[in-house]
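Researcher: Please generate the 3D structure of the following complex. Treat every line as part of one assembly.
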Amino acid sequence: MPKIVNHDERREEVVAAARRIILRAGIEAATTRAIAKEAGYSNGVLTHYFADKDEILLSALRTSHRRITERLAEKLTGLTGLAALRELLLDNLPMDEERERETGLEIGFWARSLTSPALLRTQREEAADLHLLVRSLLQSAAEAGEIAGEIAGEGLDDTAERLLALVDGLSLHRLLYPDRASRIEEIMLAELDRLRLP
Amino acid sequence: MPKIVNHDERREEVVAAARRIILRAGIEAATTRAIAKEAGYSNGVLTHYFADKDEILLSALRTSHRRITERLAEKLTGLTGLAALRELLLDNLPMDEERERETGLEIGFWARSLTSPALLRTQREEAADLHLLVRSLLQSAAEAGEIAGEIAGEGLDDTAERLLALVDGLSLHRLLYPDRASRIEEIMLAELDRLRLP
Amino acid sequence: MPKIVNHDERREEVVAAARRIILRAGIEAATTRAIAKEAGYSNGVLTHYFADKDEILLSALRTSHRRITERLAEKLTGLTGLAALRELLLDNLPMDEERERETGLEIGFWARSLTSPALLRTQREEAADLHLLVRSLLQSAAEAGEIAGEIAGEGLDDTAERLLALVDGLSLHRLLYPDRASRIEEIMLAELDRLRLP
Amino acid sequence: MPKIVNHDERREEVVAAARRIILRAGIEAATTRAIAKEAGYSNGVLTHYFADKDEILLSALRTSHRRITERLAEKLTGLTGLAALRELLLDNLPMDEERERETGLEIGFWARSLTSPALLRTQREEAADLHLLVRSLLQSAAEAGEIAGEIAGEGLDDTAERLLALVDGLSLHRLLYPDRASRIEEIMLAELDRLRLP
DNA sequence: CATGAATGAGTGTTCATTCAT
DNA sequence: TATGAATGAACACTCATTCAT
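Model: Done. Output below.
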């Protein structure tokens, strides 16, 4: 009997290696050879677990999102409406090293998505999920009377988009301009406060 | 007797060529050969004016920012306070093809900046200028009584940061999720409206 | 206590798999993995029955020839002289898809034989058998008075060589220039007719 | 001023190198690296003169045909009808080392053409030219009363195809089975004799 | 015996860079 | 200065082969 390896485990090892490289040296440094080496295997081994490089990158992106989602699900249990929204948005900000890494990875994928249809598709699907979630939290907050259904004439969709754009913008600035963007959490909280009904 | 050429002029020619390519076909298409050809020179000429390819890209980024600044300066003449701010922020949104491409270029540089100290430094310097400008416009708007000096307890620095983060976030979403982010201009305008004193 | 397997049987299974792939998708598609998979085994099993891939291909060529021979033997039963010869030569033309593929395989081996001594040896041995067969059919046809012993001063060896060369040439043209070589069967038949005594 | 090289000359150098390799070790051995090395250059140099490997192989094939055509044109001057045809067909047989090489190269291309559309197209175009030429020589021979217009009920097209198939078949056998196919010239001549009117 | 994980050399191709002219 | 020929490392990917289990 040959050594039997857990395919999912190996895939995860490789994806983790890819993530480490992207975080350390950027997505352009994540060549197949570099990934294999980082994972501690020969370059040919990737063939067994991934059809091509795109599949590795895609998995890395999905893994990143899945981690965020899982962390969120845990934090959101028991919360509803504005409180849940607040937790969600704050959790997406890079306030510690781990989340800073996630954000760095994400930024690399932004650029790559603009030229890779497969990556863009994944990016969109998962962004749509998040948007939907934010929107439904806004709705339940409105129904609970915590916030107005229309914020200064702006529908829920626009509000959701605005909040998520702000999260991405602040996250980006945090990594690019850490000095200036030291207060992104406060900024986000203030933004949420303005949603409240008086 | 060597031919006397204007170094700065040549550099600009080459950088302009690089920019044209990047805007037209993406940063990956900007190979040294393609840049030289686009500029109308042989590939070897680049050596004389740039240490390496990175220097060309860096210059392209700087030029991009300078052009934005110049375009802005023109639009802002005669405007002050909130009106000027409004013009500035809207102008930074990718509402036509040219600015969409400029945003694409920018996003590419975000990712690269995270792993390239030289790029990051440039990025920071120029972002600082913009931040300062927004802050001063906010200040003059406050002094003119158009907006409150403290927006819901938030200082001018934070407001400036918030507006700029929102611009970047919305710009990014516009490129990644065009369906969903069709209304970024309206969102930006609503945000500005909320700054106004009643 | 090791499992006892019939080595020859296994070899044949693998070779048959290789043949199926070559006929279906060309010799370039016949990778060791593909062959193993087609045969229903893991890729490592090939090691036990073949020294290397070349040995598999060689066996496939031999099998191909043997199959042709067997098909012929069946068709030739009861036939003698010119009638048998006619059957033999026509059967070697790629007049249906199966034989077209067999010809494709053969052409691939022609090229490889020129640089592989082992392949060339096999090729020669089996070509010699065929030549001998054609010659003996010609002889029996001559003895039966169907054809002249000397065809326009040409001995039986040359006639045999000429007929076989024509078969290979026409087969090749059929695959390379199907439009032009649509009438190879008629051409072959006319050639045989010209052998007849008046 | 930089070193100016004659592009056509370089292309020919590279193509000649490719031809040498194909003849020496088969078409499969003609990797881009091997070709570059054989030509005495680094592997990157090929980029300057050829779009891709297929273009090199295609050029090698065309060069081969052009050489044959040129050699023929010279030999055929002053000849017409059957005499010209005879010269043409005999010249296509690998009766000396040079033509043996050409044939070896050709056989390699036969196999390759079956899986490469570009190669097949070229092969067909040039084969069509040759077929046309043979056909027109047959026609003029018939008009001159040297041969019958219909050879045993066989039209000129079929006769041309038959003669060319025989040339290819004999050439192939000459390389694969040199012992047996020592008399291909005599066989070809006898075939031509049979075309003559009594 | 059989498995399938793992290897590493090799493929065509791209491209920043060097340098003699 | 400017040219463009030339380099050689790097890229993603393929595949025959090896070998511990």
